[in-house]
Amino acid sequence: FPWILRDYVSETLDLTDPAVFRDLSKPIGVANERHARDVKENFEDPTGTVDKFHYGTHYSNAAGVMHYLIRTEPFTTLHIQLQSGRFDCSDRQFHSVPAAWQARMENPVDVKELIPEFFYFPEFLENQNGFDLGCLQLSNEKVGDVVLPRWAHSREDFIYQHRKALESEYVSAHLHEWIDLIFGYKQRGPAAVEALNVFY
C-alpha cells in the first residue's frame, strides 16, 4: 500500500485539502522533489554487471514487513532471527509514524511503502507484549508503542482517519498513478526510467 499522506504533524487532518496528500504519481524515493536530481544522477550499476537502477533497495520486501510489524508475533521472532538473535538498533526500528514519513523525506534510499495493516489493524501500533525495544540514542526515549501523528487521538482513530484518507476523493482520483508505478506500465522499461522508478 502507498504512503498516501504527507501531513503527520498537524493537530487536525483536513482531507478536503490536497496539500495533505502525497503526490501519488511519483515513487516514494522522490516524494521529496529535492531527491529527484540525485536519483537521476545515480542511475547506474556501480559494478557494471546488472541493468541500471535508481534504488538499490525495494519498496516492499519481507524485511520491510517485519520492520512495521516488529511488535506483533510471529514477526517479532522473525525480526530477531533476521538481526542475528536480537532486536535491531532502536533508532532503525519503526517507532513513530511521523518519524517514518520524515525518514522518507530526508533519505531517498529509504523507499519503504506501507503495508495493509496501516489501514485496518491498530494492534500493530501497540507494544502489547512489552518487548524491550531499547531507547533512542538522541532523546534516550524508550521505544514502546508507536508514536502517532498529532491528529490521531488513539491507535483506532489513526486507523479510522488513515482509512478515510485512503477512501477520500483525492486518493480515488489519483491512486491509479501509484498503481501505474507499482503494478503497471511504469514499473519497467523507458516509462520506469522516465518516472525515476527503476529498482534493483
From TrEMBL:
Keyword Cell inner membrane: no
Keyword Ribosomal protein: no
SUPFAM superfamilies per the UniProt record, alphabetical: BEACH domain (SSF81837)
One of the GO BP terms on file: intracellular protein localization
Domain BEACH: from-to ranges: 1-200
An example molecular function term from Gene Ontology annotations: protein kinase binding
Pfam family, one: Beach
Keywords: WD repeat
Gene Ontology CC annotations of this record: cytosol; membrane
InterPro entries tied to this protein: BEACH_dom (IPR000409), BEACH_dom_sf (IPR036372), BEACH_Domain (IPR050865)
PANTHER family: BEIGE/BEACH-RELATED, NEUROBEACHIN-LIKE PROTEIN 2
Protein name as catalogued: NBEL2 protein
Organismal lineage: Eukaryota, Metazoa, Chordata, Craniata, Vertebrata
